[in-house]
Amino acid sequence: xxxxxxxGYQPQDSFIxxxxxxxxxxxxxxxxxxxxxxxxxxxxxxxxxxxxILFKSAHLQWQQVSFIIKFIALFSLLNLIAIFIFQPTYGxxxxxxxxxxxxxxxxxxxSQELFYLVNVALKYFCTxxxxxxxxxxxxxxxxxxxxxxxxxxxxISYAVALALRYIPDIQATYWDISAAQQARGYELSSKxxxxxxxxxxxxxxxxxxxxxxxxINTISTAMQLRRFGxxxxxxxYTQRPFxxxxxxxxxxxxxxxxxxxxxxxxxxxxxxxxxx
Length: 276
Hints:
Layout: H1 15-18, H2 21-37, H3 41-57, H4 62-86, H5 90-95, E1 100-102, E2 109-110, H6 111-137, H7 140-149, H8 154-183, H9 194-225, H10 244-267
Antiparallel strand pairs: 1-2
């Protein structure tokens, strides 16, 4: 993996990048809450497709997100397998019916269980693209000013901005150390055994943690010397006014959330049941 895969803000000229950070945060949070609370397959499928389209429209490079997407995909697959192993009858209990697809004793697979697992998988397709989209298209400084605009303390807002800025720095430092280790003859690439790569990663992460703590102390000292936090308010160089496109995104988020409330009433609960 090279530095092109570093996960962090990447400036581009796209519709998503030009949106106000507050509008993007509002959309991400509200739509994510809607997707997490409902199990209506029709809604989840629509939001999943819409999220993927938004992700592609931001002109982001695959190298930037390939590692995190593969990691989340592996985690999601393990989660689905664990759900099936520990309670393979949960789907039929939810939907109150049973249609056997594969008879295998305790691990009998039913249409209801498979349908429930598909809904769980769709939730990842709904939220993961939106989360990555927000992280990769939002300038940390603009995000901090937007949080402050929402009446959140500017100290907390600035801390969030520093954290977002620090994520790419940590990744860059990690790959620099990894490259230096490989130059000394330690094989840490995909050619090495998994145990060797894990051991090498641990040897890199431990000193990286200590160096990060030292950098945090340096930054906090520098901020204190500049009397950060001595005033009740502050101004923001990157603060942007709301435009028509930002209001459209906020209204769209409210509409999507409102649809889930309507579906709750229509389905008499969180679950859409196509079997009855």
